[in-house]
Write a structure and sequence with these properties.
The N and C termini lie far apart (about 90 Å). The chain has 4 domains: about 150 residues, no CATH class; about 100 residues, Immunoglobulin-like, CATH 2.60.40; about 110 residues, Immunoglobulins (Immunoglobulin-like, Sandwich), CATH 2.60.40; about 180 residues, no CATH class. The protein is elongated and about 135 Å long. About 45% of the residues lie in helices and about 15% in strands. Strand 8 and strand 9 form a beta hairpin. The strands form 4 sheets. It has a 5-stranded antiparallel sheet, with no helix packed on it. A 4-stranded mixed sheet has the order 3-9-8-5, with no helix packed on it. Strands 10, 11, 12 and 14 form a 4-stranded antiparallel sheet that branches. With about 575 residues, the chain is of the alpha+beta class.
């Protein structure tokens, strides 16, 4: 019984092996005939036989038929796989030697008791090898008959033609065998193509309209472009889009006409009905929502005078740009002639991981003349569709730099007077002249005295916006130079290092980039603290550095920031970095 079961299993595997061999011999031979059949189907569905003259149609058919017959020519030597070939295939697939499979059905030449016992022992050993026999799979070698891969061309053409034809009936398989028609009657049947292309910023795929006009197209983003194309006979059929609001046809953005084709495009602003080729399509347009932006907390000033804004901003397809509008508040002279425009304050976008769409931006505006003055701050967001949204305005005193040196603060105040209103230059000159009446008492440093006198000369000679700005910039350099010498450069490097690290944490930079920026922040912090320690007098150290960090505290803070970044909690690290910037 065990031998019979083994023989049945071998018979099944042998039959499958013969089928595999048959497929490997048959499929390469059918490749070229199948390619010519695919070309015929493609030409029919694309409407080629309907469009070309009758003589050319016959020539194409003869070429295709000839290619099909020539592709079948190799079958003249075709033969079916034999039983022995199937057994040799099984032995190759299973790495069996000595014709193991044929042993099960063979008999010894002399059937003596000794010979039969030896032969049965040999069969049992061979049966153990056949216990898990596998027939394998068919592996037809198509590259042997198509070394250059030309079979991909008919396959791709057939794929395109199948989806191109769709349900429009633009091309039929019987078109190749239609009788010739008189000249002037060989026209294509009317073909309708229409699709809707959503704006790129929506990241939505185009929508194709069915030719029968039965479908309702829903949830189309506002601003999508509807394209309708008619070709063949009847292209003079009307194409119109009727919005729901007033029912008056919308004027097409663009119309192109030729002898056998006409197309029109419409930018969809509201829902409506498309009428073309005697059919209708209901198109539902979803308006693009306005962006939303609002303050998350009250604007605040960092320890170095930078303005910090925390806010939420969102949109249905994403905000493309956001900024804070800062204008003077309080008693404003309508006839004032400010030297500088309002400060620019671009806003950062929320990170991808932010659940409440919150973001944070810090900018140092202490150099602007409006610093220290009341201002109104309004957040403005714009989306890709051009919609603009504004937050509720907030009033505050714009953070200003604190000058501990009275002379430096006086020069900065003179600059602010004429920078906010160039007509006040005489007042600023009087103020400057007053502090130089007794320079031996008020300006003991000769270099500072000469700088202030040169600034007075520039103030007297200023006559246009360029010279006014040059004078204002010069006076700001004098004020900051008197206050802390080279500290401004160190402070700027520290701020740049903090901003670069915060931005890298928000954008998900690599660990190597975070490590490099952390090292730059350590160096900038060391330079900043070293400069402060060297420049400030002991009395000013008590006032200005009550919150200064000891070296050990500084190292602990930076190590904590680095550990947060390495642990993968980038949001917490970015928040901690912003708090460190104060």
């Amino acid at each position: 019984m065990q031998g019979e079961a083994l023989n049945r299993r071998i018979a099944r595997k042998r039959a499958i092996a013969r089928l595999n061999l048959l497929a490997e011999r048959l499929l390469p031979g059918l490749l070229w005939p199948a390619c010519f059949v695919a070309l015929y189907l493609s030409f029919s569905w694309l409407g080629l036989f309907h469009a070309v003259p009758f003589a050319l149609r016959i020539a194409i058919l003869l070429l295709l038929a000839g290619g099909f017959v020539a592709g079948l020519w190799p079958f003249r030597r075709f033969r079916l796989p034999t039983r022995a070939e199937a057994e040799r295939r099984l032995e190759r697939e299973n790495a069996l030697a000595h014709q193991v499979i044929s042993v099960a059905g063979d008999r010894p030449a002399r059937e003596t008791p000794e010979a039969l016992a030896l032969w049965q022992a040999h069969q049992r050993r061979m049966a153990e090898k056949l216990d898990r026999i596998d027939s394998g799979y068919a592996r037809p070698d198509l590259s042997a008959v198509d070394r250059h891969g030309l079979r991909a061309i008919p396959a791709l053409l057939l794929f395109v033609a199948f989806f191109y034809a769709g349900t429009t009936g633009s091309g039929r398989l019987a078109d190749a065998f239609r009788p010739p028609v008189n000249e002037g009657e060989a026209t294509l049947a009317l073909r309708f193509d229409a699709w809707i292309s959503p704006p790129p910023y929506t990241r939505k795929a185009p929508v194709y309209l069915q030719a029968d006009g039965a479908d309702d197209v829903a949830a189309i983003p506002e601003g999508s472009v509807l394209t309708v194309r008619l070709s063949g006979k009847g292209t003079d059929a009307p194409i119109a889009f009727l919005p729901d609001a007033d029912g008056q046809p919308q004027t097409a953005d663009n119309v192109e006409e030729s002898e056998l084709a006409r197309s029109a495009t419409f930018t969809l602003r509201q829902s409506g009905v498309l009428e073309a080729a005697g059919r209708q399509w209901m198109i539902d347009v979803v308006p693009d929502a306005l962006p939303v932006i609002a303050f998350k907390s009250e604007p605040r000033a960092a320890a170095n005078g930078a303005l910090e804004l925390e806010y939420t901003v969102s949109d249905d397809y994403g905000v493309t740009a956001a900024r804070a509008r800062i204008v003077p508040a309080g008693d404003i002279d309508e006839h004032a002639e400010p030297l500088y425009p309002p400060p620019e304050f671009p806003l950062n976008m929320p990170s991808r991981s932010s659940e409440d769409h919150s973001a944070f931006t810090s900018r140092n505006l202490t150099e602007h003349p409006l610093s220290g003055r009341p201002v109104t701050i309004t957040l403005i967001a714009e989306d890709a569709a051009g919609h603009v949204a504004r937050s509720a305005p907030l009033e505050m005193i714009l953070p200003a730099r604190t000058f501990y040196n009275l002379l430096a603060g006086s020069v900065a105040e003179q600059r602010q007077i004429f920078a906010l209103d160039t007509r006040a230059m005489p007042e600023a000159l009087q103020y400057s002249a007053a502090i130089t009446l007794r320079p031996e008492e008020t300006i003991p440093d000769l270099t500072q005295f000469l700088l202030i006198k040169s600034a007075q000369t520039r103030m007297l000679l200023a006559h246009d916006d360029e010279t006014y700005r040059d004078t204002a910039d010069y006076m700001w350099e004098i004020a900051t130079g008197i206050e802390d010498g080279e500290l401004t450069a160190a402070e700027r490097r520290l701020r740049e290092a903090q901003d670069a690290l915060s931005e890298a944490l928000r954008d998900g930079a690599s660990d190597a980039e975070i490590a490099r920026l952390m090292e730059e922040l350590r160096q900038a912090m060391q330079e900043y603290l070293s400069e402060m320690a060297q420049r400030m007098q002991p009395s000013k150290m008590q006032q200005g550095q009550q919150q200064a960090l000891r070296q050990r505290d500084l190292d602990n803070m930076l190590n904590q920031l680095e550990n947060l970044a390495r642990s993968g909690d980038r949001a917490a690290a970015s928040s901690f970095c912003r708090s460190c910037s104060g």
